[in-house]
Amino acid sequence: MAYYEDLRKHVGSAPLILPGSVVIIVNEQEEILLQHRRDGGWGLPGGLMELGESFEETAIREVKEETGLDIDGLTQLHVYSGADHYLKVPNGDELYCVTAVYTATDVKGNILIDEDESYEFRYFPAERLPDGILKSAQRYINDYLGQKEKNRAYR
Q1: CATH number at residue 145
Q2: Domain span including residue 92
């Protein structure tokens, strides 16, 4: 049983702070891997931290579970938290997300879809992301692209 599920037994729907990680996986063509999620929209692979894990370990585990891919050489983009990251999910549970966002370009393996969580995975050019992208994923990608532009300007 996931850590947060055990907590829910004690606190019901009251707000929880839930840490997790997502990864912006970029291929050689500089396209971004997106997940068409069963719970709605297009997002980035990732998920919630388990007890004893680091943000990096969470990122690596979640990408493996959701995509079948092995990633290495994570670069942290940012940690997002605060009032803007409050969610109330359809069952009434409330949470505040603390999300570490990473980028990864060292990717091995073939995509294997966990059909309980995803319809598909597909690489998209950053300038042509699909309709229905989750607001959080769009923000993370925009920040990634902005950071990339800053790095180019400083070279």
Answers
A1: 3.90.79.10
A2: 3-153
DSSP string, 136-154: HHHHHHHHHHHHHHHHHHT
Q: What is the pLDDT of residue 40?
A: 81
Q: Is 83 within 8 Å of 15 (Cβ atoms)?
A: no
Position 154 confidence tier, pLDDT thresholds 50, 70, 90: low
Number of domains in the chain: 1
* DSSP helix/strand/coil, 112: coil
Over residues 16-30, the mean pLDDT reads 96
Percentages of the chain per state (helix, strand, coil), in multiples of 5 = 30, 35, 30
Supply the pLDDT for residue 119.
Answer: 93
